[in-house]
Write a structure and sequence with these properties.
heterodimer, A: 1202 residues, alpha+beta, Neutral Protease, domain 2, 35 helices, 47% helix, globular, B: 298 residues, Rossmann fold, four-stranded antiparallel β-sheet
Chain lengths: 1202, 298
């Protein structure tokens, strides 16, 4: 019998157009995602092939999660439709067994569901073999790569979601309940995403994620390119557990469903008991009172208000709305625990942080907006009261406008709820510095406008399409089309609906210059939205006519005078504001989309690359005068460079490159000798001057220039965030430089290929003389004398490298004169803001001398939280570095806060600009927290040595000399101040940075000594491996090597070339005993990974306060090539073996830690300890690179006495 | 005030001719629109109620052009559609008050009074705080009537108002309409002949978009007086009789068909002359139209 029902189900579904539409959607999405760049779903980048098994699996996972609504639509209605179509009485009175009915329906629908989702596989496969595919980005076709993830991920996903929806539909007999489940699943997924941000939670997230997306990410997070290209994600470990859990959930649901389902047609609990009607013969004899009707403006307004409130309340009362909102806020609160995490630490819950958090609610807003705009437009028709409503004497716009206002009231209410939630989160976190004004200014401008615009758009679409579900589809299409437009190069804000950016809020600069462009764009889009609204009013269905032709006829009748006036007004607003925006972005300023930008970059390279290595004089002296006008966001600059011919041949041409920004104009440029323009590449702002008399070796000349930076009108993209109202920060790149700038070239292989350019090397070989001759700041200079006068608004302080010579006021402006007393790198900053200043000083005692150093922090008022820590870090760092490496070359250090448009800190000579977004607002609560303010300060100060005293050559490995050594220096300063656990916490983050970084490598992974500006290597791996090095050979030895290195290679010593990692390695090897040389090789010259693991660990009591731990370990050492192919290499290492106990507080305490020689893969150790052991392991502190650090330690269990 | 319909035609996009050159003049009082299901009654009523556009023709209500001055018509209109729903989670009083606002009853006190009066009138007062979702079909229908009577309408259009009402409720409703219909244009559509007989002073029979007959019910009955004949026949004979006579209706009576035949004189002695009813008028018209059409086809 059940088989008959199944067959019927298949036949029924085979005749439903929906079945084919669903299949078509999935097929098309998959086909486009695989075969074009227009639709992107996750997907590989760089060296990971577009059809790599991991890429396919993750795309399948995402599709099956996103389109779980198809699952709900197919499975949810399997039983439900009998109720919807009021067929239940007929069907259920037939002699069918419950089991047959349910089983037949379930299996039938599930088969259909599988067939529908097989569209993904077919789409992918077909997409892969399309002739236009770039063979280089593809692996050879392999059907298993598609079938395996389909079976592993899609089928279980469909099974358990299908079971859930099927049972929910059958039991509740309400589609709403099915949708609510959909939301609930989404929430579980969100939760797993949120907790994933903490490394410690990742395994849990991997096991819990219903769609197994986190699971896939977790399992493959450290997979190298080769692994991603060759391995399918195996159905084992976490993946297996996850799949088992969710498939069981599916089965359990089905079983519960079977026992709960009943054939009773009337389910009493779901319906209100019917009212008994009182029978009376006559209607009561009451007179119907006469009432007055009026149709004045005020009555219309009253109707509008009543309607608005009616619809608002209607949504407020809906279960779906409550569920979405509840879940949204739940997610928000959950997110707040992880908000603004930097290195496992919280930033202060400042209002803008909270607002960023609330920004995450926008997704829920969008769901509410899209679904309820459809619901409201169809409200009357859905309950069939539309004819009564439509015959009411209300103006045509009242109904639609009432619905719109209803939505807006709802949104305002929700925004207030979010505001209160935000304030509560702040309060619970013990932060009471609420900035209510900023809450309002963001939520009721940016967020509210976004909601208004999209609501009006959705209304319009729903009205015109005049079919709720088709309307939803069109809205989704609209979103896709916007995205497609922008990938096709239509990026201008005038074409991207409701893209109005209020920018990041900064305590220093407020919303700054973003306000103007934001406001105008909103006026523009509101104009359009009003036009759409009038059209919606005209064409909305009133009565029973739905044909477009007739709606058009009726629509014309509705164009009353006020409506026409309103429409004209809207058109004028739209056109005028659009024109004004265009005038600002494209006439006053230069607009380029990213394609045009790339074209320019390519052309620059093709035209000027020939000049890259021509001999140029060096800048030896820079003297600047910069007048800043922060309120206008302008500056005027004039300057003089002294150029000297340091080569041994005469130079007769000077190549000058201006900053390419269209806001910068060169007013004049002349030399102290006569010269003419030989060639001017105006487009690239590249000019070749010919000197009448060549500049002979050793001779100097002066180059004078005047430039202007002018802000005209506003732009809507690529905002200039460096010259701002409060918090100007730019560097020397704003001023003219000499010769070709390699940094302007296209970078990624893909972009270069599009422009017929060969892939470029990221760095030069370590023995390339052209690289060795220049430092990593560029080839313009080998160090400069520096002097600058900056003027700015009187309430601001302007700062540049050098020492303050004089400070004065003139003509209502403030002037600052700085001068550096020694040679410094040709790399300087100009900063100006309203600052509070905290000053301190210290004396650095060295062997024979001592030096006074002034310490200053320039900060924004209110950001006092970590000043003390930063100050302490400065003192400790200077003391340590001066003692261990070399004396500090300056007598002052200044840290300056700049707005959070970027999040970094950067070291200039005696000057460190430090972003508002890091350090200043980090909340360091527990002892266990990594003190990031302390650490970053120390790191930047270390750059005064590694980067400013010792400047690396511009070849591979340069970043090891600057960044890795700074990482090491800061780690050592921190080690003296903080606990081992703290260091471990920090190194764990750095290890993760390295391992996940290498999984995303675009070209090739390099060993540390050959690093090519790869953050994950020079910061992440560098920190971990330098820490390991000092652990093995001793801090003193490492410092000794560095001391010698900086002594021999600092910029004050005359030398032929700049240093490289070859030099550094020489010093390091010199202090390393022969027995440890292999270690230095492994850490820095090779890519080595360990797989250390505890197999078993037991303990037995052996007398009074003596325990013996028996530990069986497994240790593998692997060497990887630049793409991540690994080969096992013999292990012959000394590795930590450790045993933990517990202290009084129940915290881990090391009882034993010693290096043991590991010369076999499987080894057993017996260790005696004096306290009761709890855990034991190999390399328990994770000093060595290991992709599974969790299994390095295991709980010890009492040995069974035998 | 009089409602005049002139040359009104409407063909739906699927080809169904809903209204075919309809001409009607509807004076004050109860006007019955009689016709089988699908005759075009609802199309006509929706068109009068400003909710549908005809392809051609005009409708005027007094000086108002119903087709273009929709807003003005709606101010004086009370409309009960054939099929309608209500918001299930809202109580009767709230929804009626809300509708009263839309009717332009701006004064809150007046609104409260009329809502109360109408709920009493329709016997819903004690359920006024009940959610409409819990209403039975009859209660819902009464609510529909209540809303149609808001603000003293001059033109009341009620489409199949007694569908779903039990006999007692139907009676009550008739009384209510009769009370109101005295100085208002009330158009009532129905396929139940008795409704019209009991209530209406004027009526029209409409089928397949055509107006077959207009007039006073009693005059119409008078016109066929003495021309209706009845006979009980055997089951198998029905087709033969239909060929031979103008059979206007047949129904089962005690297990045997009983036919009614329209004829100026007694067809044969086995036929009894019977008193003519409105029903006979109705069936005479409908069947004649059907026959004519059949003839057209041949």
């Amino acid at each position: 019998m059940w088989f008959k029902i199944l067959k019927f189900e298949l036949k029924y579904r085979a005749n439903r157009p929906a079945t084919y539409i669903y299949f078509g959607i999935l097929f098309l999405m998959s086909f486009l995602a695989m075969s074009t760049d227009v639709v992107r779903i996750g997907g590989g980048a760089g060296l990971v092939k577009e059809n790599a098994p991991v890429t396919i699996a993750s795309m399948m996972g995402i599709l099956s999660a996103v389109f779980v609504m198809i699952s709900s639509a197919i499975m949810g209605v399997a039983v439900l439709r009998d109720f919807d179509h009021k067929m239940e009485s007929i069907i259920f009175t037939n002699p069918i067994k419950k089991l047959d009915y349910l089983l037949g329906r379930f299996i039938g629908s599930f088969i259909i569901l599988l067939l529908v989702f097989s569209g993904i596989v077919l789409g992918f496969m077909l997409g892969e073999i399309m002739p236009w595919r770039d063979a280089e980005k593809l692996l050879p076709f392999n059907a298993w790569n598609y079938i395996q993830p389909f079976l592993t991920f899609i089928v279980p996903n469909l099974f358990f979601t299908g079971a859930l929806f099927f049972v929910a539909g059958a039991l509740s007999r309400k589609m709403v309940v099915v949708y609510l489940q959909w939301i609930a699943l989404f929430i579980v997924y969100q939760v797993t995403l949120i907790i994933t941000s903490e490394i410690d939670n990742r395994t849990l997230a991997a096991i819990l994620d219903p769609f197994a997306l986190s699971t896939m990410n977790n399992v493959t997070q450290y997979w190298t390119v080769v692994e991603q290209n060759t391995n399918v994600i195996p159905l084992s470990g976490k993946v297996l557990i996850n799949r088992l859990i969710w498939v069981s959930v599916g089965f359990i649901t089905l079983i519960i469903g079977y026992f709960t389902f009943s054939f009773n047609v009337v389910k009493s609990s779901w319906f209100k008991p019917k009212q008994k009607v009182q029978k009376t013969e006559k209607f009561p004899d009451v007179d119907i009172p006469k009432v007055s009707q009026s149709f004045t403006m005020s009555v219309t307004l009253q109707q509008l208000w009543k309607n608005s409130w009616f619809y608002c309340k209607d949504i407020l009362n809906s279960v779906v709305f409550k569920a979405i909102t509840f879940f949204g806020i739940f997610i928000l609160v959950l997110n707040s625990f992880y908000m603004g995490r930097v290195f496992g630490m919280n930033t202060y819950p400042t209002t803008y942080q909270i607002l960023q958090l609330i920004g995450g609610f926008n997704l829920f807003f969008l769901i509410i907006l899209v679904s309820f705009s459809g619901e409201l437009i169809w409200k009357e028709r859905d309950v069939k009261i539309n004819l009564i409503y439509d015959a009411m004497p209300v103006k045509d716009f009242v109904n639609l406008l009432g619905k719109f206002f209803g939505m807006i009231m709802l949104f305002i209410f929700m925004l207030l709820v979010l505001l209160v939630t935000g304030v509560l989160i702040q309060t619970f976190k013990g932060y009471y510095d609420y900035n209510i004004a900023v809450y309002f200014k963001t939520l009721f401008t940016e967020t509210l406008f976004f909601l208004i615009l999209y609501t009006l758009l959705c209304f319009f679409i729903q009205v015109i399409v005049n079919n709720k579900f088709l309307g939803y589809a069109v809205i989704i299409l609209f979103f896709i089309a916007s995205a497609v437009l922008s990938t096709l190069g239509v990026e201008h804000s005038l074409f991207q609906f409701a893209e109005t950016d209020l920018g990041p809020y900064s305590d220093m600069n407020g919303y700054g210059h973003y306000v103007t462009s934001f406001s105008w764009l909103n006026v523009y889009w509101l104009g359009l939205a009003m036009i759409l609204f009038v059209l919606a009013t005209m064409f909305s269905v009133r009565g029973s006519e739905a044909l477009m032709k007739i709606r058009f006829k009726v629509g014309k009748l509705r164009l009353t005078k006020p409506l026409v006036t309103f429409l004209l007004m809207a058109v004028i607003v739209f056109i005028f504001s659009g024109g004004f925006v265009y005038y600002n972005t494209n006439v006053l300023n230069t607009y380029q989309n990213s394609d045009e930008n790339e074209d320019d970059q390519a052309e620059y390279e093709k035209t000027l690359k020939q000049y890259e290595f021509i001999t140029q004089p060096k800048i030896i002296d820079v003297n600047l005068k910069v007048d800043l006008y922060p309120k206008k966001r302008d500056y005027n600059a004039s300057g003089t460079y002294i150029l000297r011919n340091d080569s041994d041949e005469p130079i007769d041409k000077i190549h000058v490159q201006q900053n390419p920004s269209s806001q910068i104009t060169l007013d004049s440029l002349y030399f102290s000798v006569s010269a003419g323009i030989e060639e001017d590449f105006e487009k690239f702002k590249y000019t070749i001057y010919k000197l009448e008399e060549p500049l002979n070796p050793g001779e100097q000349l002066k180059m004078h220039f005047k430039t202007r930076f002018v802000t005209k009108g506003f732009v809507t993209s690529n905002q200039n965030n460096s010259v701002v109202y409060n918090g100007t920060f730019f560097n020397s790149q704003q001023f003219p430089s000499l010769g070709y700038n390699e940094g302007f070239e296209l970078f990624t292989d893909d972009d270069r290929k599009d422009h017929d350019l060969k892939p470029k090397e990221r760095s030069m070989e370590r023995d390339d003389p052209r690289g060795l001759a220049n430092d990593f700041f560029g080839d313009d200079s080998d160090g400069i004398q520096f002097e600058i006068v900056i003027s700015t608004d009187p309430e601001q302080i302007a700062v540049a490298p050098g020492y303050l010579q004089k400070e004065w006021e003139e003509n209502g402006r403030k002037y600052f004169h700085y001068k550096m007393d020694q040679k410094m790198a040709n790399f300087y900053s100009v900063i100006s803001a309203e600052y509070e200043v905290v000053r301190d000083k210290m004396t650095i005692n060295m062997d024979s001398t001592s030096k006074d150093v002034a310490l200053e922090i320039y900060y924004n008022k209110g950001h006092e939280y970590n000043l003390e820590r930063m100050m302490r870090s400065m003192k400790n760092s200077f003391t340590y570095f001066s003692k261990e490496f070399s004396p500090y070359q300056f007598s002052q250090m200044r840290i300056l806060e700049f707005p959070r448009y970027s999040s970094f800190a950067q070291s200039f000579a005696n000057t460190v600009p430090f972003s508002e977004g890091i350090g200043f607002v980090v909340e360091i609560k527990d002892e266990d927290d990594v003190d990031i303010a302390y650490y970053v300060t120390s790191h930047e100060l270390a750059h005064q040595w590694w980067g400013h005293q010792l400047i690396p050559a511009n070849v591979r490995g340069a970043a090891m000399l600057s960044e890795t050594l700074s990482q090491y220096s800061a780690l050592m300063v921190m080690k003296n101040e903080y606990s081992m656990e703290n260091m471990q916490e920090f190194l764990k983050e750095e290890m993760n940075r390295y391992l996940s970084g290498r999984a995303n490598e675009q070209k090739k992974e390099m060993p540390v000594t050959l690093v090519e500006s790869q953050n994950y290597i020079h910061y992440g791996k560098g920190a971990v491996n330098m820490f390991a090095l000092q652990d093995y050979i001793g801090e003193d030895s490492v410092n000794m090597a560095l001391k010698r290195f900086v002594r021999d290679w600092n910029i004050f010593v005359e030398k032929e070339r700049y240093p490289t990692t070859i030099d550094l390695m020489g010093y390091l090897r010199a202090v390393t005993p022969d027995s440890m040389q292999y270690l230095v090789t492994d850490l820095f010259d090779k890519i080595i990974l360990f797989e250390n693991k505890v197999e078993t660990s037991t303990y037995a009591s052996v007398g009074d306060n003596k325990w013996e731990v028996e530990l069986a370990i497994n240790s593998k050492k692997l060497e990887a090539d630049s793409l991540g192919s690994e080969t096992a290499v013999p292990n012959n290492y000394w590795i930590d073996i450790g045993v933990y106990g517990e202290d009084e507080d129940g915290k881990d305490k090391l009882l034993y830690l010693k290096k043991h020689l590991i010369d076999e893969e499987d080894m057993t150790f017996k260790i005696e300890v004096d306290e009761k052991p709890t855990k034991a392991g190999i390399d328990p502190i994770n000093k060595l690179i290991d992709r599974n650090p969790e299994d390095n330690i295991k709980k010890v269990t009492e040995k069974e006495s035998s | 005030m009089e409602l005049t319909i002139t040359n009104l035609s409407k063909t739906y996009s699927n080809g169904v001719k809903a209204l075919n050159d309809v001409n009607l003049t509807i004076p004050k009082g109860m006007f019955g629109l009689l016709g089988p299901n699908g005759a075009g009654k609802s199309s006509l009523m929706r068109t009068i109620a400003t909710l549908q556009e005809p392809d051609s023709g005009t409708i005027t209500l007094g000086d108002l052009d119903v087709l273009t001055e929709k807003d003005e018509v709606r101010k004086v209109l009370g409309y009960l559609p054939q099929e309608f729903g209500v918001y299930p989670k809202i109580d009767a009083e709230t929804l009626l008050d809300h509708l009263a606002v839309l009717k332009g009853i701006a004064n809150a006190k007046e609104r409260k009074e009329i809502v109360k009066a109408l709920l009493q009138k329709t016997n819903l007062y004690k359920f006024r705080t009940k959610n409409l979702g819990g209403f039975s079909g009859g209660m819902k229908q009464r609510f529909g009537i209540a809303q149609a009577l808001l603000a003293d309408p001059k033109l009341i259009i009620v489409d199949e108002p007694t569908a779903g009402l039990d006999p007692a409720e139907r009676n009550r409703f008739h009384n209510l309409l009769a009370e109101i219909g005295e100085n208002t244009v009330v158009i009532l559509s129905t396929h139940i002949v008795d409704d019209v007989k009991e209530l209406c002073t004027q009526m029209a029979i409409i089928n397949q978009g055509n107006v077959l007959l207009t007039g006073h019910p009693e005059q119409s009955i008078e016109a066929i007086k003495g021309k209706i004949w009845r006979k009980r026949i055997e089951k198998g004979e029905l087709e033969d009789y239909k060929k031979q006579y103008t059979v206007i209706s047949d129904k089962m009576f005690a297990g045997k068909p009983e036919i009614r035949v329209f004829s100026d004189g007694q067809p044969d002695p086995s036929f009894d002359n019977v008193e003519s009813h409105l029903e006979d008028v109705y069936f005479t018209q409908i069947n004649a139209a059907v026959k004519e059409e059949a003839a057209d086809v041949v």
